[in-house]
Amino acid sequence: MFDIPRILSDTPVRRIEYHAELPSTNDFALQQLRTEDVGELPMLVLADRQTRGRGRGENRWWSSEGALTFSLILPLDPSQLPPDRRPLLALAAGLAVRDALEDFVPSAALRLKWPNDVYLSDRKVCGILIELPARPSDVCVVGIGVNVTNSFDVAPPEVRGRAISVAEHSPAVCDLTVVLIRILQQFDRALHSLGHDPGKVVERWQSCCMLTSRQVCLQTETQRTVGRCEGIDAAGRLILRTERGLQPFSSGTVELMPSPAG
Ligand code: BTN
Questions:
Q1: Does residue 153 share a domain with residue 187?
Q2: Is the CB of residue 143 below 6 angstroms from any atom belonging to ligand 1?
Q3: Which of 39, 45, 115, 255 could cysteine-pair with 25, CB 3.0–4.6 Å?
């Protein structure tokens, strides 16, 4: 189903683990890091199907054949990505997927929802889960799920109402290998920018933010905050204008508030 030699030749990926089915590519990558010498990186874990895909927090990630589900094991080299810029990695990953999908759907329809969801015509087309293993401490796992040609006919209702695939929006044939290569190339570019000019990544991310100037609700483990989204700051934190003034948030789940009726 995937053209493995082409992925290796056209992207910075050095090793690929390709499986028809895995519970979760992130779990496989984390297990690999626990039990084996990491070897050459970046390494790509790729599956045609996931049976227990994980999302952020306690969420599940539902996918079916035709979706891209993969995880990248990336080296975290402090000379290329200083530790204080690591929080921007999540934003750079979302931006990279957004930019890659511009080749297949109109650019204006693609927006970002903090921290790293990609939306297509107001529905979620991509989710990203970044995990840092305890050991080794100098790598991270970037798990990416993109709805490319999959249908949501048999998806749970809550997914069907909120998700979209690239093919549903623009029905020209999308080859999964081509989309994957484009994403890996854009991610490499974004990582390079993050090392050299993080302000540019923040500025570009900001220009695609779907929440700016809108009333949102942000839920953290301990509190719920309502405010108007003012975009992100240089550290990638979400800025809300609340009753108490401007407040930055570095974690949490954000949702748009329903517009007032009438
Ligand atoms: C989210 O939006 O909550 C994040 C979803 C991340 C899904 C991807 S699919 C590949 C990788 N493996 C997983 O189990 N999850 C990520």
A1: yes
A2: yes
A3: 45
pLDDT of residue 261: 60
Among 117, 127, 109, 123, smallest CA distance to 163 is for: 123
Calpha distance 214→256 (Å, rounded): 7
- Which parts of the chain sit beneath pLDDT 50? 262
CATH number of the domain within which 176 lies: 3.30.930.10
Domain range for 154 is 4-207
Share of the chain above pLDDT 90, in %: 89
Kindly report whether the peptide bond that precedes residue 260 is cis, defined as omega within 30 degrees of 0.
Answer: no
Asked whether residue 32 is assigned to any structural domain, the reply reads yes
In a domain, residue 66? The reply is yes
Q: Cα angle at 127 between 123 and 131, to 5 degrees?
A: 160
CA 94 to ligand 1 centroid distance, Å: 12
Query: In the chain, what percentage of residues exceed pLDDT 70?
Result: 99
262 CA to middle of ligand 1, Å? 37
Domain assignment present for residue 15? The answer is: yes
The reply to whether ligand 1 has any atom less than 6 angstroms from the CB of 59 is: yes
Dihedral angle, C-alpha 47, 139, 7, 112, nearest 10 ° = 80
Number of structural domains the chain divides into = 2
